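forwarding from the other thread:

> can someone predict this with 5-amino-5-deoxy-1-O-phosphono-D-mannitol?

sure thing
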Amino acid sequence: MKKDIRPTAQSDIIKSKGGYPHFMLKEIHEQPSVITNILNTYINQTTGHVTLPDEILFLSTVPRIIISACGTALHAGMVAEYWLEQIACIPVETDTATEFRTREAPMSSDGAALFISQSGETLDTLEALRYAKRKDQKIVSLLNTTESTIERESHHIIHTLAGSEVSVASTKAFTAQLTTLACISVGLARKKNVISESREKQLTSALRKLPSRITDFLKHDEKIRSLASEISKARGVMYLGRGTAYPIALEGALKLKETSYIPAEGYTSGEMRHGPIALIDNDMPVIMIAPFDDLFDKTVSNTKEIVKRSGKVLFISDKRGIEKLKDIATWTIEVPEVDPFVAPILYTLPVQLLAYYTAVVKGTDIDQSRNLMKSVTVE
Ligand code: M6R
């Protein structure tokens, strides 16, 4: 018997690479339009105010938000922890869903839990959600797909509007999660009355400048292509960052592992002295994610320590940052100047491209990383 085909919101999946050699590169290049779309959804273009859906405004009053997710989605949650705490003054605890679901964390019944998932089907995230629900948490999920299991089991949903993502290595879904979480942080801060109207406008204006900065950056990736052949020879790569650059260091390392199969780890720059520094030598490039912000001087001091130990440093910063370190760093990648608030979104681009072009040099199956599934629905 012929079955009816029911169109779903995912029926728009057009599995075309649109002239790009890989979906990963296509999806990297889609980021300016994805981000624009999200900003147009949440930011009033005339007033610069953020408007959030009414049903999530209660998050401004909860004693604590638990954020849980896996992989790249977890890294988005880790950035949001900084934003929600620093901008909206909401205490946050972030944990990987794989641990959160089993560690039996106690929680007060008036709390909320935020789950982040591109697919909405990741089993560990779903089980973490079920645990939080049993503990009477209000469940909000940030999802890129529609009609998923996580959507059905959540109290409230925010969709991240990245469109379908084909490459196993997630790129545009990540920056879509970050952009949405940035808007949520600013919107909750205003609702809570912990930032002024002018500060809100300053933050939304920084967000609105992002798509054109990213477009400019994407036009000049020749330098990253040439650095990729250096990185492809490494026996291992270390990514370092502080503050919101720390989750981007983790994300850079994850992208490189997934696409090039080169051992790569991310650490906070501060943690480097507590062990990872022992790994530094001439064969282990260190990639410094170094926005020109309040923590920049500490990053400079870490970079000098690495260079003193014969380490090779690829320093990612803007013109001002590179000016200070150009004589010390082995290589540099210059990104456009942006407000430090949006730096984690912009600084994701160089680490995505570096992973992509390194994988091209290595000749791996870029869109279908070995041993990995786009959505992990098993334990
Ligand atoms: O679909 P989800 O966002 O729940 O997936 C979570 C992770 O499995 C996913 O982000 C994975 O780490 C990606 N392959 C990263 O590129």
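The radius of gyration is 20 Å. thats all i got for now
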